[in-house]
């Protein structure tokens, strides 16, 4: 397993001045088991969160992704607490770039500006480098939401604006509106991995490349399936919540369909002396040049150790293509 870091090459996030590592740390897992979506994961202890954050940042990740809805601010607070600790320890990695998100459901664009101070407080007064609209369903139009985001940039409350779960058309519209304020849409955070390729088919990837918008791939390991651990030991499926099983397609029939892909991940893993999960992450951050960055989540420090190792090598074009084909075959 590759865990040591060689220097990680940073890449620009969209057309912003932010330079990010190809992988950032997903912080949904820090929701403390609370709130609408926070119950999805188990309640992690402070010490585990600190270790996960430390290993990830010291291992070469220079950014983190959290959200208001992850425990109603609890993930942001847990992250801030861990960063405070790192700062006290004198760590050189205590100041990552921070991406968080506003939750739009049943709210209007007005709440973007009325809740921003709460976000900043949860983050312990740290600045927000990328503020994202979590998903497209709200009581306001994209135009009013982008106007509010532009207002936050102008007021110095956030540095850049992004969206999440937007379709190609919604993403293009958000970008066009931000341009009227002299800004650009920096990123669209969407589900993307070897077992979930919707954005390759619905025009989102193509439009993102054309407009210079970064794709932030969430659930990059298909919530653990691409590590091969459920193929190896299907009894682990029972330990996973029904909601997660449904969202990730975690059942024996789907596992049988993805088996040839997992086998190929294992063959390449052996060649590079890494793990199948590291191969899956490496594919994501290289197959589309610099367009895709990914945010694996971790609930154990060994996950974080393993995930950062995916930035220490590079699959060659022929291998990226083989995986591409095996991925489409698994999705047929
Ligand atoms: N914008 C959105 O709507 C949206 C939606 C979903 C996620 N996200 C963001 O994306 C991040 C990542 O997505 P995700 O958490 O859904 O999926 P993921 O990163 O694909 O999977 C994370 C889970 O996979 C398992 N895992 C991770 N690394 C592993 C390793 N090296 N070996 C074995 N198992 C490993 C762990 O499961 P166990 O905990 O069961 O061990 C972990 O909790 C989130 O933290 C969040 O920041 C955004």
UniProtKB/TrEMBL annotation:
Annotated ranges, domain NADP-dependent oxidoreductase: 22-326
Keyword annotations: Oxidoreductase
Coiled-coil segments on the chain, per record: none
Domain of life according to the entry: Bacteria
PANTHER family tied to this protein: NAD(P)-LINKED OXIDOREDUCTASE SUPERFAMILY PROTEIN (PTHR43364:SF4), NADH-SPECIFIC METHYLGLYOXAL REDUCTASE-RELATED (PTHR43364)
Protein name: Aldo/keto reductase
